[in-house]
Design goal:
about 100 residues; 4 strands; globular; single chain; two-stranded antiparallel ribbon; 4 helices; alpha+beta; binds iron/sulfur cluster
Length: about 100
């Protein structure tokens, strides 16, 4: 539905070594630069930047596109995003549908 909720969640965006390796192979310095700059670490129940302590609000690759949200790296998004199933989490507006 492109509501952006899962991408705005503190919990949804993290990358694994396989994502990093893929982006290196794809020469996606743009992505690697942002990941390196964010340096997201857990601080209790939310993410902050280890660089300067800035509170991180959702995924840095999420874009607002005139009424809908858009993933700016959709074709090479992290594994965790590919595996996410709408409705599988309580943060999703589709969670209770079909029950
Ligand atoms: S990489 Fe794309 S799909 Fe994954 S959380 Fe960010 S905006 Fe959402």
């Amino acid at each position: 539905m492109r509501c952006g909720k899962c991408c705005l969640s503190n919990l949804s965006f993290y990358v694994k070594d396989a994502d990093i390796e893929r982006w290196k192979l794809q020469n996606r310095e743009d992505i690697l630069h942002i990941i390196e700059n964010c340096q997201a670490v857990w601080a209790g129940d939310h993410f902050v930047s280890a660089r300067d302590g800035t509170f991180l609000h959702g995924c840095p690759f999420l874009e607002w596109d005139g009424g809908i949200y858009n993933c700016s790296i959709y074709g090479t998004r992290p594994r965790v995003c590919r595996d996410y199933r709408p409705g599988s989490s309580k943060i999703c507006s589709q969670y209770y549908k079909g029950l």
